[in-house]
Amino acid sequence: VSSASKGISPRLFRLFDFWLLTGLQKSFISNIMKLQVLSLFLPFTAAQTKIPLYKRSNEDLVLAHIQREREGALEQQEESSNLRRSLQESEIIKDYANAQYFGAISIGNPPQSFQVIFDTGSSNLWVPKVGCVHCGNPLFGRKHKYNHDKSTSYVADGADFAIMYGSGSVSGFWSVDSVVLADDLVIESQRFAEVADAGGLGMAYTFGKFDGILGLGFTSISIDNTPTVFENAISQNVIDQPIFAFFLGDNGPGELTFGGYDVTKFEGDLKSVKLDKATYWQILVDGVNAGSYQAEGPITAIVDSGTSLITGPKAEVAKLAKAVGATGNFMGEYTINCSKIPQMPDIVFTIDGTDYTLPGAATVIQSQGTCLFAFMGIDFPPPGPQWILGDVFMREYYTVFNYVDQTVAFAKAKRSAETQEE
């Protein structure tokens, strides 16, 4: 992400669902590199903290798609204008309109609870403050709001916090307080933002089921280089190992594990992939193929828990969609005749020599007779990533993020583990 108030120029661009993001990229944080490099494949006996992740319904996502189509060309023109302006000002930030997974944290003492999106594509923690405007309303989209006057562990910071979205700004100020994950993982003196005006997120935030964002990217893309929650968890020795792992539920809750990973959630062996850049969780993809479609790498891709779809270059996604039988609209989104889903070919991403297969049916979000093809075309300016592997990919593959080794690892997710927990 980038800070408009600091006049930072962009080095990387990304899509969060159907909006673009630019971000400042620097070198990987030096204090973390001083830690001993640890193996990714750590014993399952390591102490772990697990947070349930709850999934937004497919119906909500499809209805959002239909609504965007109804808004038509006028919205497209407005978005295009905002995009051009924001690219020049280095101020395009994520809109979480399609974000699917959220879980609980608490801030302060006594604890104040919040539902947040755990986002590997950003690096700051923010929640709305008491008195926040454009932060839901009592009838719908009600938000939990932080009140620092009720926290005995609150420490004033007061520096301005501002992010400029294409549709407006999200602003507030920095504060410091304790943050608790899953009731027992306590991070002391965490700097985070109290948001006073969330207008820049628009109706996506007003109607969303989340209160704030907890970024799990690297500190190098954090506003003001503020240490992330996970970096502080490492430096304060509140987790055994510098890793976290996602199991994204489909028909049931998912799970985010800190300090280890859960071998009951995947099949076979984890296969580790070295990051191409330790900014976002960026890797190189050898190729993508589906039916008659084939793209050869190396292709840059970000593994992003905060993006629901998979995105790629417009021209490539158009060819991919044609190969699987999907048709597009002017926004770069695609639908497919629901009756044709059984005939869809698999889509295969080859990463570090290993094929990761997405069955055709797993690339469709279906509700109320509409079948949304879960790929979207977007062109990122260089040196931005070419593809984003969002929740559609991560639902199929258990994903482990190693902060110190700078790797991600994948293994086939066990859907039976999800079923047993329901």
Give a structural overview:
- By secondary structure, this protein is an alpha+beta fold.
- It contains seven helices and 27 strands.
- It has helices at residues 30-33, 58-89, 202-207, 229-235, 314-324, 391-396, 415-421, and strands at residues 12-16, 19-23, 49-55, 101-107, 112-119, 125-133, 155-165, 168-181, 185-197, 212-215, 243-247, 254-258, 266-274, 277-278, 281-290, 293-303, 310-312, 327-328, 334-335, 347-351, 354-358, 364-367, 370-373, 375-377, 387-389, 397-402, 407-413.
- A hairpin with a 4-residue loop joins strand 4 (101-107) and strand 5.
- The two termini are 37 Å apart.
Number of helices: 7
The main sheet comes to: 6 strands, mixed, barrel
- Radius of gyration computed on alpha carbons: 20 Å
The counted number of beta strands is: 27
Which strand order do you get reading across the main beta sheet? 4-5-10-6-9-8
**Helix-strand category:** alpha+beta
Shape assignment = globular
The portion of residues forming beta strands comes to: 35-45%
Any low-confidence stretches, pLDDT <50, length ≥5?
A: 1-46, 69-95, 417-422
What is the helical fraction, as a range of percent? Answer: 10-25%
Distance between termini? 37 Å
| Overall mean confidence score, pLDDT | 79
Gist?
The chain is an alpha+beta fold and 422 residues long. It has helices spanning 30-33, 58-89, 202-207, 229-235, 314-324, 391-396, 415-421, and strands spanning 12-16, 19-23, 49-55, 101-107, 112-119, 125-133, 155-165, 168-181, 185-197, 212-215, 243-247, 254-258, 266-274, 277-278, 281-290, 293-303, 310-312, 327-328, 334-335, 347-351, 354-358, 364-367, 370-373, 375-377, 387-389, 397-402, 407-413.
